[in-house]
Amino acid sequence: MKINSFLPKLIFSVLFLTVFSCKKNQKNDDFSTNAGTIETPQGMIWVPKKTFIQGAKGTDKYAMPREKPAHEVTVDGFFIDITEVTNAQFKKFVNETKYVTVAEHPIIWEEIKKQLPPGTPKPHDSILQPGSLIFNKNVKAVVGMDNYYQWWTWKIGANWKNPQGPNSSIEGKDDFPVVHITHQDALAYCKWANRRLPTEAEWESAALGKNTNSIFTWGDDASLLIEKANTWQGTFPIKNEPKDGFELIAPVKSYPSNSLGLFDMSGNVWEVTADFFNVNHYSDLDISKPILNPKGAEKRYNPDNPYQVEYVMKGGSFLCNASYCASFRISAKMGVAEDSSSDHMGFRTVATIEMLKK
Degrees (nearest 5) of the Cα angle 301, 150, 251? Predict the structure, then answer.
């Protein structure tokens, strides 16, 4: 196999790996009952304990099998970031710890090949250079929507500081979500900040706001999408009509919050969670018994990417369009490999009362 034909397969099977192959002292009844004298951390909001419907809602025409069946869960209260972690916040973490993200590390073939089918040939060393995936906004035409190689590009030198490659920067973009962050990078940030990643159930509880059974973060009215979230308008992936105000990524808080005061739970950038991605997880659940604080699947499983460890990511991104993934819905989910990064995935963190008391 020639290197040129092998590269797309390597990059997309290993490094992208999607499923598709505040105010302090804020209180409400639940918070004041359970939190005692704990103050709301800066930049976070309390999500009260709630029983709600997790997974695909009955009227959701875009729901996929991995989102079914819907089931009732109860999730205890927790704090969550009002926005995705921003460039400014991640910069502070890096400055204090000297952390180097996965996208900045040299690529080690001996590690990568463990995630590939046996016998996969090694590409040329000139290709195995630090970088990340960026969306190719210059696509003029595509042949079939199953081949996402057509609109993704492996960019050597792309990372959180240089989101479009070596000639780009985040100067003046402190309030944008940090991107090109892997699951591993997010965990490192959490350790530094005394936070953790949300479970999928926690994420859905927060995204629902004060609702318990809605399709979107604002309710069930799909016509409000343009004004409520940063997504793709037009013909994906060849023509984007930024009717919502932004062609690609947007600063945090550019769109209205949900009913709890959380921003960008729908669109802008995907948000990685703590749960393993398993396409059969919901169908394997015993929903005859109460489900309290679910932690997701015990084992990861994605038949499209059997060699990689994948985690659930939620919320969709600026690339989501009804004609393609419609992942701006609360129940939508994709899988992402633990060492994969791109320019449309970030994260937000959570904290519990127990964590803050330590």
Answer: 80
Identify the band that residue 256 occupies on the pLDDT scale cut at 50, 70 and 90: very high
The predicted-structure confidence for 73-96, as pLDDT tens digits, reads as follows: 999 999 999 999 999 999 999 999
Report the greatest alpha carbon distance in the chain: 64
Tell me the sheet residues that pair with 135.
Answer: 152
Q: Which residues of 219-242 are buried (b: 16+ CB within 10 A; e: fewer)?
A: eeebeebeebbbbbbeebbeebee
DSSP 78: E
Per residue in 233-250, pLDDT (tens digit) is: 988 877 888 888 898 999
Q: How far apart are CA 344 and CA 250, in angstroms?
A: 11
Is beta strand 71-75 parallel, antiparallel or unpaired with respect to 44-47? unpaired
Quote the pLDDT of residue 36.
56
User: 80 by DSSP, 3-state: which?
Assistant: strand
Q: For the whole prediction, is pTM greater than 0.85?
A: yes
SS3 (DSSP) at 186:
helix
Q: How far is CA 222 from CA 61, 138, 317, 332, in A?
A: 11, 28, 16, 15
**Helix or strand or coil: residue 43?**
coil
Q: Compute the CA torsion angle 340, 166, 157, 317 (nearest 10 deg).
A: 10
Helix and strand counts by DSSP (H, E) for the chain: 9, 13
Beta-carbon-side half-sphere exposure of residue 151 (alpha carbons within 13 Å)? 22
Distance CA 27, CA 37 (A): 10
Q: Is-contact 101 159, C-beta < 8 A?
A: yes
